[in-house]
Description:
By secondary structure, the chain is α/β, with parallel strands linked by helices. Helices cover 46% and strands 15% of the residues. Helix 1 packs across helix 9, helix 3 runs parallel beside helix 4 and helix 4 runs parallel beside helix 6.
Amino acid sequence: MSSEFKGQVAVITGGASGLGLAIAKRLVSQGAQVALCDQLKGPVQKAAKEIGAQAKAYQLDVTDEVQVGKVVKKIAKDFGRIDILVNSAGVTGKTNIQSHEVELSDFKFVFDVNVNGSFLTARAVLPVMLAQKYGRILHIASISGKEGNAGMLAYSASKAAVIGMAKVQGKEYAEAGITVNALAPAVIRTPMVAALPEAQVKYMTDKIPMKRCGELEEIANIAAFIVSPGASFTTGFTFDMTGGRATY
Length: 248
């Protein structure tokens, strides 16, 4: 087992399944302890049990400002430190519809989870990282935040906001030993993607030169690098994981 993250503690939102769980498993395999956070109590407890003694489960609604503050304080107390934050909690909202069909309530919901959730959790962990003079924050964005996916207005716009947030935060904490980056995947095989209409998934996959979805193992590989101690001179950047789709 690699020990690159030995002694480090990672907070991972959306940690009960999908990208979050895959990244958590990779970090644990390299020596980290992980605090898995998810709104779903049963699944996040099951995920922590699956990982073992290096993981603890925390029920967390990332859109609840008070709850985020309390849970992050508890994690810092339980583990004694927080070195890494991976914001993987996210929703697509209603898809395969045009902008004039988008409901404001759905638009607000997607922004609340994807943007406000990432903002609140980052804001909560940053004081801990500043005190340590070390930290790694990774916001999971999307290629749709760069290029826009037709039929996914709320999701695409929210992920563009996440990319903008990473750029700002990367500059703000560049001299504090803290890096803040984003990762923009194309479509990855996750439960969230499996729930999308087939036409929407085909639309996204057809745009990928490799003509396939990304795999969870592939995203865990690049995420582990981004939050590693060695990735110390890259911040405010959006990493590509698109099978050749990204154009900038």
